[in-house]
Amino acid sequence: MNNFVRNTHKLNKHYIGRLYSQVVTPFEVKAEQGSCVNYDKLIEQFGSDPISEEQIRRLEAITGKKPHHLLRRGVFFSQRNFSDILDAHEKRNSKVPPFYLYTGRGPSSQSMHIGHLIPFIFTKWLQDTFDVPLVIQMTDDEKFLWKDLDQKTLRTMTVENIKDVIAVGFDPKKTFIFNNFDYMGHMYRTVSRIQKSITTSQVMGCLGLTNSSNIGKIAFTASQAAPCFPSSFPHIFRDEKLNSKIKCLIPCAIDQDPFFRITRDISNKLGFQKPCLIHSKFFPSLQGNNSKMSASDGMSSIFLTDTDKQVQSKINKSMSGGGATLEEHEKFGANLHADIPYQYMRFFMEDNDELERIGREYSSGRMRTMEVKKIAVELLLDIIKGHKQRREQITQQTIDDFMNTSQDKWK
Amino acid sequence: MNNFVRNTHKLNKHYIGRLYSQVVTPFEVKAEQGSCVNYDKLIEQFGSDPISEEQIRRLEAITGKKPHHLLRRGVFFSQRNFSDILDAHEKRNSKVPPFYLYTGRGPSSQSMHIGHLIPFIFTKWLQDTFDVPLVIQMTDDEKFLWKDLDQKTLRTMTVENIKDVIAVGFDPKKTFIFNNFDYMGHMYRTVSRIQKSITTSQVMGCLGLTNSSNIGKIAFTASQAAPCFPSSFPHIFRDEKLNSKIKCLIPCAIDQDPFFRITRDISNKLGFQKPCLIHSKFFPSLQGNNSKMSASDGMSSIFLTDTDKQVQSKINKSMSGGGATLEEHEKFGANLHADIPYQYMRFFMEDNDELERIGREYSSGRMRTMEVKKIAVELLLDIIKGHKQRREQITQQTIDDFMNTSQDKWK
To answer: How far apart are CA A173 and CA A328, in angstroms?
Structure first.
């Protein structure tokens, strides 16, 4: 970090994103021309910290669980106060949850793509590992304010996306799913307290908004911030006196960090703990590792509703890191970083040894592109098949159980 | 209106308030130095219309009721599309309400002052005259965002103010009272639609907000706008298909107009009728006719909780329009416009002949200041006594009846 950046950082950390040539906000991800997002630089830019080897070792030691492959492989790579969560777990007692998990989804498409599963898969692992309550926010209001979608369409999308979330396998006894349009009544007092603490220029700087932005966009940060505080869930955290002590851990893609940076700035003032975060990298598009998969671009995405044939065809046409000719491939090997089928394996293949073997063989040129694509197709078809099967089991009663506002969601 | 003003008015009617030396927004009332608010100029400034003699005559003709003294005496003096309301009443059928009434109160003090009764007294008369549903919004969120008050204090203030509102004598079968903190859940979809249609610069220009205003203030207009549209009250307006046709009439003090000017601009776009308005002048403070009574200034106000002695003492010390000496008084008579006890009679004395007699006698100097003050004290004590008696009858059940969200509020 040079001196200029360091000083500016001190002056106003919200604006700092703009000093870098890569721009990452919840609404815009722009890498430096022709290259991928530089995640080391992003950590510096945002002022977060890398996840350390020591933290991963400690997590394993205190939970007795092998760290998730998304953690070991650096897909989740950045954090804020993650050690506080490990502390809380160590000091836990059975009366109150040591912390709770909060993640979410903006329902902007009927079907989710495979990349959308990543934070949920990891969140499920965190819930299973730490045995804590989890709240999942569907930001239908955000999508309404930012996209050209009407509320009726959004209602359908929200229900369909909730089914996809549930199909990841969460425990309904400890998981509360809510959508802002319907839950705002329970959250509005907390939302107002947050709104009162944030100035218009703060959100403008942090989210890239302007005077011509609609007033809902200006206010929205408070909707996404509110679930960081236990007062938003009186049916889960019934003893108001403990609200100032309960921590929250947010697993999310790093582009959501600006919302929580603002939230962390005001948490103590409002009498709450700062939310802790654990950030993932973006899930790459079929076209290559320098853009993220986007549900609004059908060509860049594999959807959870795609047929086997569609998945196969999309993977076959996806960006390859193999040599241009067989000769070149055998001579130089594959570029794993640029190879989308291999990258998807890094996200979804649980077997570490097998992934290493493929990486070794493929990068040396001994394994061919078609073979790697075939393995990737099989892996993804398996993931999608399992997902579809679990999704079909979901009834209205299942949904109601997850969205129930009178259930405790804690043992 | 000179040409410069006229053209600017066309360019952006929201900003026009700032071109005049008197400033009137919901948060600031500033007359030109040393003088009273110029209401004729305000009509020009805001682009509303005066209430015409013809409208008052027509109201009497179609309802068969003698126009309320607040209307006859020009306390309610300005309007927007009031004739549409008269049209709707004439064309009414018994199946749907021809329109509904909407008014409100920002609960920023434990006790309301006598001036706060004025819009409610007039609204009750409108409800009795037109036999329509009425919604009353308590903007506890507004007061939270603007004032240094916590939510617990506001909760008490809101309940106490609701009791004062109920004591005016509304019909619980046709009146729905709600506070934003608790009702937002029912209204948030409509609020979001409004937020999506208003830009940040629009509210900044219209309400005098800036980039350092908190984001709740920027968004708040949508809370106050939402009740203008029937979709905010699904328990009252059950047939969604009629929502685009139902009109709303808002009786309020003129300083609230900026919110509704913004609302009127977006109503048609959202598929609703523009709200119609009928505006009152400000209720003068004890110190004189050039400032309005303010509950946060105990010295300027007579509260509904004041004792008889307090009322008497406050009126006796209030600004008088009588002559400085008895000799001068008998020679020049009283200045009725500057005389606060007389002005309060204009607001509260129903008997027109008696008010005229007092005005004649006092302005000619035949009646003395102490006599006028005595009449004013008796009148106000009578008002406050009746209010206290009705207020004492209010039980939790009464409040619940008014705030019930499952009751029809229409025959």
So the answer is: 55
- Level-2 CATH architecture, domain B3-285: 3-Layer(aba) Sandwich (3.40)
Vertex B258: Cα angle to B255 and B259 (nearest 5): 105
> Is 90 exceeded by the pLDDT of residue A335?
yes
* Separation between Cα atoms, residue A24 and residue A16, nearest integer Å: 11
Share of chain B above pLDDT 90, in %: 84
Nearest to B38 by CA among B290, B234, B251: B290
How far is the C-alpha of B212 from the C-alpha of B219, rounded, in Å?
14
Instruction: State residue A283's pLDDT score.
Output: 95
- The answer to whether domain A288-392 has CATH 3.40.50.11060 is no
CA A143, A149, A155, A161 dihedral sign is: negative
Q: Which of A151, A188, A191, A215 best tests the B interface by mutation, with the highest count of B CBs <10 A? A: A215
pLDDT at B14 over 80: no
Chain A residue numbers touching B181 (CB-CB < 8 A): 188-189, 192
For chain B, the structural domain boundaries read 3-285, 291-392
Mean pLDDT, rounded, of chain A: 92
Least confident of A67-71, A231-235, A271-275, B36-40: B36-40
State which amino acid sits at residue A402.
F
Taking 90 as the threshold, does the pLDDT of residue B309 lie above it?
Answer: yes
For residue A74, pLDDT over 60 is answered with yes
| Pairwise CB contact (< 8 Å): B215 & A210 | no
Write out the two tokens for B379: 């009148």
Interface confidence (ipTM) of the complex:
0.92
| The predicted structure's pLDDT at residue B291 | 82
Distance separating alpha carbons of residues A8 and A15, to the nearest angstrom: 9
pLDDT band for A6, please (50, 70, 90 cuts). very low
What pLDDT score was predicted for residue A13?
45
Hey, what are B148's tokens? Answer: 């240094």
Instruction: Look up residue A4 and give its two tokens.
Output: 């200029």
Q: Give Cβ neighbours of residue A392 (< 8 Å, ≥ 6 apart).
A: none
In angstroms, the separation between the Cα of residue A193 and the nearest Cα of chain B is: 8
What is the pLDDT, as a whole number, of residue B346? 97
Cβ of B198 and A189 within 8 Å? no
Tell me: pLDDT of B4 over 60.
no
pLDDT of residue A295: 78
Residue with tokens 């959308």: A116
Closest residue by Cα to residue B219 from A142, A149, A214:
A214
Q: What is the pLDDT of residue B19?
A: 54
Q: Is A149 on the interface with B (CB under 8 A)?
A: no
- Mutation target to probe the A interface, by most A beta carbons within 10 A, among B200, B262, B269 is B200
pTM summary value: 0.93
- Same fold for the domain at A48-285 and the one at A288-392? no
Report the chain B residue with the minimal C-alpha distance to residue A184: B185
- Within 151-180 of A, beta carbons closer than 8 Å to B belong to 151, 180
Contacts of B182 in chain A (CB under 8 A): 185
Distance from CA of A245 to the nearest CA of B (A): 20
CA distances (Å), origin A255, targets A24, A69, A78, B296: 6, 21, 12, 45
Let me know: does B399 contact B163? Beta carbons within 8 Å.
yes
What is the Cα A13 distance to its own chain's centre?
22
Q: Report how many Cβ contacts below 8 Å link chain A to chain B.
A: 114
Cβ pair A216:B199 closer than 8 A: no
User: Between β-strands B99-105 and B134-138, what pairing exists: parallel, antiparallel or unpaired?
Assistant: parallel
Lowest-pLDDT choice from A1-10, A249-258, A356-365, B197-206: A1-10
CATH 3.40.50.620 is the classification of domain A48-285: yes
Calculate mean pLDDT across residues A228-243: 94
Contacts of A215 in chain B (CB under 8 A): 195, 198-200, 203, 218-219, 221-222
Question: Under CATH, to which class is B291-392 assigned?
Answer: mainly alpha
